[in-house]
Amino acid sequence: APLPPPTWTTPFEAVNKNIICPQMENLFMANPNSTESEDCLIANIYVPDTKTNKLPVLVYVHGGAYQIGYGEFAVAKNLMREKEMIIINFNYRLGPHGFLCLGTPDVPGNAGMKDQVALLRWVKKNIASFGGNPDDVTIIGYS
């Protein structure tokens, strides 16, 4: 399972880092501005410019057969124009970093799936701070 996020005492600049999880090369989802890093568990939270609270939340899980992809590949700005909602996309560990299972305590398997569960728990606990409703979260995705 991923470690809990660090606690900051000063503002953390988290804009436009282009960090993605290590993965095999793929021309379909290539991003020449991206940087692969094992420190890649990043969520992008898009909040509309509104005073409304308790907004519905849409969490997008990127596709790629658990081998390729990254959260920022699909940004649902057009959907936000149609309906006031918070949209979240995120990275999770892929390939052997995310889904290798040796059945040992060091490599029990499904780290990528555990990353997704950790993100959803984080959303439930923290999304109200962004104006979202923790009881109105929809998960979408494809592969």
Describe the structure.
By secondary structure, the chain is α/β, with parallel strands linked by helices. It has a single domain, classed as Rossmann fold (3-Layer(aba) Sandwich). Helix content is 19%, strand content 21%. The protein has 3 helices and 6 strands. The protein has helices at residues 77-82, 95-99, 111-126, and strands at 19-20, 35-36, 43-46, 55-61, 86-90, 132-141. The chain has a 4-stranded mixed sheet with strand order 3-5-4-6, covered by helices on one side. A two-stranded parallel sheet has the order 1-2. The radius of gyration is 16 Å and the shape is globular. It starts with 18 loop residues before the first strand and ends with a strand. The model has no long low-confidence stretch (mean pLDDT 86).
Keywords:
143 residues; alpha/beta; Rossmann fold; four-stranded mixed beta sheet; two-stranded parallel sheet; 3 helices; 6 strands; globular
Write the layout of secondary structure elements.
Elements: E1 19-20, E2 35-36, E3 43-46, E4 55-61, H1 77-82, E5 86-90, H2 95-99, H3 111-126, E6 132-141
Parallel strand pairs: 1-2, 4-5, 4-6
Antiparallel strand pairs: 3-5
